[in-house]
Amino acid sequence: MHDEWPDRRFRDLFLQSGIPQAVIALDGTIAAVNEAACSLFDRRADELVGEPLLSRLPHDGLERSERLLEDLLEGRVRRAQFEHRLLHRDGTSIDALVSAAAIQGPNNELVELSISLQDITALKALERKRLREALEDPLTQLPNRALLMDRIGQAVERELAGNEPYSLLFVNIDRLAAINDSFGHAAGDEVLRAVADTLCGLVRPGDTVARYAGDEFAVLICHPEDPHHAVAVAERAAAALNTTLLGAGWPELHYTASVGLAHGPADTAEALVSAASAAATRAKEFGRGRWHVLGDSARHQMAEQRALGAELTAAVAANGLSVHYQPIVDLRSGNVTAFEALVRWPHPRRGELAPHSFLPLAEALDLQIRIDEWVLREACATATTWPQGDLGPISVAVNVSPAHLTTPGFAAKVCETLRESGLDAGQLALEITETAVVADLALAADVLTTLSEIGVHVSIDDFGTGYSSMLQLRQLPFDKLKIDREFVRALPHSVDDLSICASVVSLASRLGVHAIAEGIEQETQVKALDALGCHYGQGFLWSGAVPASETHQMISATPWLRPTKAGDPRTAAKRNSPSSDPVVLQRARDLHESGASLNTIAASLNRAGSKTHGGLRWHAASVARLLFPQGGS
Ligand code: C2E
Ligand code: CA
Ligand code: CA
pTM of this prediction? Predict the structure, then answer.
């Protein structure tokens, strides 16, 4: 027993302390221990004295504790704390937190170490359990998604370092939801466990079978020596998972799985997973219980989409999109009454991209709402700069994506944008598609009613392409129906389309709203639509969407009596028309429709004091040019 105590009080303090303590000699062996330490190990003091402090039980911190003890014993540090694993008499291990300090002699020389021990066995067990839970799927005890992603990440890095090929198998159980519904969730769980067992039976040590999500499993296959191994596993997995579950309670439970395979190398773990998952989706499309390996061109396409996605995210963050404006024209007078705001992406390498080539991507990346909000702000700000049109203020129509309309706070955000821009609510129209409102009609009606109460207009976009019934749409406060360009394209020759347009226009008039025809490219379409009573039109006949800077010119160039070539609004020519006065045109059209001859119309206009654009009296020829600007009948 250690007997060089400087003071009896210190000795008692040491021996009777409730904290396990020991004195360590400079050779690393135990020189003295107290009662508490003895009971911690369930060993007597005379058994412990003379033993080395550090057992060599393996644990994560072994190397560190050995290094620190050496530093202490050689006087390099004066105190240190480390976790260490110690041996109990019964052979179990004790995790201890060791706090050690140097004991110095009269000349400050190191003579011994004093250490105290804290039993942290329970704490460490809890920590390990937490860690396991964080990385393990509780139902199948397989690695979960987090652990899988980590392992794939490591495989990606190893491949980069030394060409170790790997593949990922993605397994999607077909119709698990239906199994849950018809046999109960216990049966569904049983299927999941059976799939886990099957997959584990197909792989080699070193491969990772993981539960990726609900009905999805993934297998990371590392195959340095055998390139065909992954394909063989995919084949066998699809076959083995086309099977019947034998169990009590569900006599004949047959299930299948669709298996996708993607080979590395991949840029990231996420890229490999999405390739394998896309392959599984393809497999499912071919019929259940199959497997499919993603080809190079599909992989290439996915990589391109990913790159484009990253560029889009950056562009949105840097306000790198732009808004163009397409005029909406009053068919009778030729006046621009509104512009539709349409988003564009001026891509540094690919040129200006149209919405269809990036909005689906934006939606997948959760960027759609941010884009919509930005377009709304831009459009409102631009609209405040427009001069008054001949028929009143020019309004701006902004598209609202389905998901956006029903986000909480949508109406408030629109109000806020209006307030910030100073735009009159009556100058804003929101274009909503049928599908957007039908998804949650009650909520959509609520939101739109709030907005229409402050004067915002609502148009139903792409009307006729959805499957909503008029009964449903009537609950919404809208004031325009936009006839989809699909129905306008073949006018006036297609009898079917003509009758569809006719019924939309008459429906609109019965509801007391106006119709806008989209996609008008020819004058014959205008005539047909005008004859049906359609009020407004939009299309390349007048102009495609132009930058904000060109909208002013367009407003002052109307009314448009001579439609321009597609996409070229700049030749829109007031100069070429016999009159720029919409009232005159309207009067001439009304008289023409009532059957008056050109001479009669000319006489009537002259009586009213009207002059042609060149300041001349009207005659039959100038009336003809007024009514039929391109020389038609
Ligand atoms: P949409 O709302 O139906 O917009 C009209 C589309 O028809 C525009 O295509 C326009 O350029 C095109 N168009 C106009 N006149 C003609 C014509 O005479 N002939 C033909 N063939 N097409 C014509 P764009 O700009 O490519 O927009 C496509 C769609 O993208 C829009 O369809 C709209 O659904 C969506 N979109 C555009 N901008 C936004 C936006 O800011 N937010 C949201 N949520 N969607 C937008
Ligand atoms: Ca639209
Ligand atoms: Ca449309």
Answer: 0.60
